[in-house]
Amino acid sequence: MDLHWYRRFGILLALLLAWGGAAAAQTSRVSGTVTDAETGDPLPGVNVIIQNTTTGTATDINGRYEIVLPSDQRTLVFSFVGFQSEEVEVPPGTSVVDMRLEEDVLGLEEVVVTGLATSVSRTNLANSVETISARELSEVTTPQTFDTALNGKITGAVVNAYTGAPGGGISIRLRGITTINGRSQPLFIVDGVIMSNDAISNGSNAVTAAAAGGNASNQDNPVDRIADLSPEDIESIEILKGPSAAAIYGARASNGVVIITTKRGRSGTGTQLSFSQSLGFTRMANPLGTRQFTAETAEAAYGERGRELFEAANGRFIDYEQELFGNTGLLSTTQLTAAGGNERTTFYASGLVKDDEGIIERTGYEKQSARLNLQHRFSSRATLDFTSNYIRSVARRGLTGNDNTGTTFGVALTATPNFINIRPDENGVYPEHPFNASNPLQTRDLSDISETNNRFLGSGRFTFNVLQRERQLLQFIAEGGVDYYGLSQSLLFPNELEFYQGVDFPGQSIQGRTFNLNTNLRGILLHSLAMPSSGLSFTTQAGIATFSQDLDRTTAVAAGLIPGQQNVDQAASLNTDEFRLFQDDRALFAQEEVNWRDRVILTGGVRAERSTLNGDVDQFFTYPKASVAFNVTNFDFWTLDQFDLLKLRFAYGQTGNTAPFGARFTTFGPVSIDGSVGLNINNTRGFAEVEPERASEIEGGFDVALFDGRASLDFTAYHKVVDNLILTRGLPASTGFAFEIFNGGELTNDGIEIGLGLIPVDMDDFQWVSRTSFWTNSAEVTRLDVPAFAAVGGGFGNTLGTIRIEEGRSPTQIVGIDDTDGDGSPDGVFQLGDAAPDFQMSFFNEFTVMRNLRLNVFGHWKQGGDNINLSELLFDLGGTSNDYDDDDDGDGETNAEERLAQLGVSARVFVQRASYFKLREVGLYYSVPDQLLGPAFGGRLRGLRLGVSAQNLFTITPYRSYDPEVHNFADTPVASGVEVNPYPSSRNVLFHVSFGL
After folding, report:
1. Could you tell me the strand order of the sheet in which 978-979 lies?
2. Which residue ranges form the domains of the chain, and what is each CATH number?
3. Range name among 11-25, 56-70, 581-595, 779-793 with the lowest pLDDT average
4. What element of type H or E holds 244?
5. For 294, 345, 513, 625, which has the most beta carbons within 10 A of its beta carbon?
6. d(Cα 453, Cα 450) in Å, to the nearest integer?
7. Dihedral sign, CA of 160, 163, 164, 168?
8. Which residue from 590, 779, 657 is spatially nearest to 187, judged by alpha carbons?
9. How big is the chain by its Cα radius of gyration, in Å?
10. What share of the chain is helix, strand, coil (3-state, %, to 5)?
């Protein structure tokens, strides 16, 4: 052994101990009670800390605390989640200090994550970090899924739903486009667990042929798996939108990071039971209506057969839009929770049962969830946190979306005029559809389409105080998490369905099985040091992190089912497909935070990471970050008392985006050679030296708070450059390949984000809280090392409009043919629009009357952004558009005839403005005063709250379809706003009751 190494270590340890300083000889004991300034109720769990030290305590169930103060440090800091922090100087000889805390309605003093093991008050934050509270997420109304609860609530985000079907499914893009072909969704972390959000296709392409030779996973009605999480269990969400905030998370964070913290118990509160029940109904939000035929228009649309069927109807007309999408679905969510604890152990347990029906019969979403969160303090040095969540969900989403066989509900509807009768007769026999390959009512009633998921998320965090002094703390933190799910998808189409007529092997069973395991581990050393004499404090963290993913997806498609059978082995043919994904990442990280008297806050950090997805699996790629914040109001020269806060902030950071799995390999496929099985090289050559894409961002802004927290304003501007893009280029035929993968190209995003918080009225019997957000982003492909190309999932070609990647243009531009000179023939391909919005705004207003009656209103405005509306085209082609016979311009040619005349001439008619204003959520609640509840349940009944709420109450939009924010191509990076007959969006109305014991 090297004795010199031990001596050096001993000297270093002695210096650390000396640096912490010695405790003062004289102390005094101070106690008191902390209460809610509005209600006067005691507040348990309030942190009471001696300023510039690591010494503190927490209030008990009665709001009481007791602490020993040294003679040279007389300032106490009181802080509690949801309330404004307070500092008080304790005069010598004072033994009682009571404190009243005001609610932090505008969230000015939220605690926000700054590293893998550190957090700071928002007043000292040097980045723009979005925060969504439990109240905003699930207490205005009851969302069906976690992802749908985010719509419109993230400043700087573009959120699009894949479909309106039950069970969720949205794409989230934070601060613009960050990739062309890579992973496009944010990194989701739940209580330290890296949660899988893979969109898993259900295999319906085997019936619909939606992809038609393309990528089936983009059009197979996938659900993103973040939908499994229960919003009711979430305490808060923090969104790290750009690399300047997310750099410490490395090569999986270029699309941003969403950090989710679930609810915990509190010490000193005893065991508290809470029950909540929501009941309601859902209806189609925006019916389009149907065409009203005459004998003449029926014949013009469908020939002599059309006139015959019209006359046979004898005035009987059926609204098939209502037949398919007009179901009134019942909604129910029941939750029971227990939370509490003592000085050593706290717990939070919950059970949730959800049963939501859809607006299409035999569709819906069911979920059962159980959660247990524990925290145990072994001693003043050691603490263990444990979280666990089991989820079982069943999604029945029907058969909607793009379709090349006429089998989906929406495409079949476009060819279904209201004068035919395709309802079943008294014997349950469905008539043949005279104008389509399938009878959508028969397909809906006889098919069985479901997805069942069983999922477990668990995490553990052990914290040990290696060194604990008055002004110095060294902690070792070990944490790990696991996310496992088993997804079973079952699609059964019996052979009596109309679209199987004339097919050699009628009847299909599509069975999918997906198993995914995510594991992550972290070991961290965290050192905190306060130096009151200089006003400096230091927070240092360093550690290692690992992440592994193992995904195995298998799909079996059986055709020619024996009548009455369902098993895949009871069929004439069977085709199987399997996809495997393995990923292992290893990382080192370090970060230093320096705070000088809450006036200047500096942060610098770096993460070095390697991954098995990179070409060189042993190479570490580094992602640095740096930021500075200036709290101007804390400087001595500042004298304006109206300002609570004026902070300037600047930040820089880099993140990465690893290559798609298998990009560095040339893949092989099976081939039959003279009756023997062999391997054949595919047409794309892998890139053995592939590297992660890299996003670099500089961000600047300011935060202002005025008039004792009654007004706040935050402004952020950013410039983000993404280079080393992973692209595909063509190769000469002599190479034996058609394409190869490579790193090349660059794109930029520039944007502005503004948030305004106000309390315009704050009286004893009435309060009005308002929060308004504004954001805009402009993107450009600044370098492209290949010719311009159509984006994957960006549309169906220039004739109908498609998203094209082109140097010098927006990565979401929509191009298509156009007749510029009006001669009736296309003159070339031109830019016709852009899927990206011009700007977005959200408006949240909360009105409280007499402290008991509360009204919440949340609206969302998206200005600009274009959709490729192919639903309208299919209605026109099917002769069923609701405005088919209207003549809006009075030129003697109907609307539909004018639109159809442009097919093959100009795609401009299909590219439509998708601006909208949505009243997303409204909630009205009354909290019954506890004193009015009397002796109910032995006097233990408390917090009785009754309410009614609505989602998607109305939408104002010029867009001519069911929903301007729905698109068909799942989470493809740049494709959004491409619509082909999706599951329509719905309007929900719910009634609520909740109480505690």
Report:
1. 911-913, 866-869, 978-979
2. 27-103 (2.60.40.1120), 147-287+326-399+447-676+689-786+835-865+914-996 (2.40.170.20)
3. 11-25
4. helix 243-246
5. 625
6. 10
7. negative
8. 657
9. 31
10. 15, 50, 40
Q: From 438, 450, 594, 477, select the one nearest 530 (Cα to Cα).
A: 594
Report the alpha-carbon angle 309-311-317, nearest 5: 75
Q: Would you say 759 and 778 are in contact if contact means Cβ atoms under 8 Å apart?
A: no
Tell me which residue has tokens 């058969």: 399
With left for phi above 0 and alpha for psi between -120 and 50, is residue 564 left, alpha or beta? left
> What DSSP letter does each residue of 635-667 carry, written as one string?
STT---TTEEEEEEEEEEEEEEEPPPTTTTS--
**Who's near 249: CB < 8 A, 6+ residues apart?**
116, 187, 189, 240, 257, 607, 655
Helix (H, G, I), strand (E, B) or coil at 408: coil
Which pLDDT tens digit goes with each residue over 137-153? 888 888 888 877 888 88
| Element containing residue 871 per DSSP (H, E) | helix 870-878
Instruction: Write out pLDDT tens, residues 74-124.
Output: 888 888 877 888 888 888 888 888 988 887 777 766 777 777 777 888 888
SS3 16: helix
Q: CA nearest 69: which of 44, 99, 92?
A: 92
Other CB atoms within 10 A of residue 782 CB: 14
412 by DSSP, 3-state: which? helix
Q: Which residues 6+ apart lie within 8 Å of 607 measured at CB?
A: 247, 248, 249, 250, 587, 588, 589, 622, 623
Length, in residues, of the chain: 997
Count of Cβ atoms closer than 10 Å to residue 905 Cβ? 18
Burial of 236 (0-12, 13-18, 19+ CB in 10 A): buried
Q: In what order do the strands lie in the sheet with 726-730?
A: 684-685, 739-743, 726-730
Single-letter residue type at 317: F
* Structure-token match 């491409």, residue found: 978
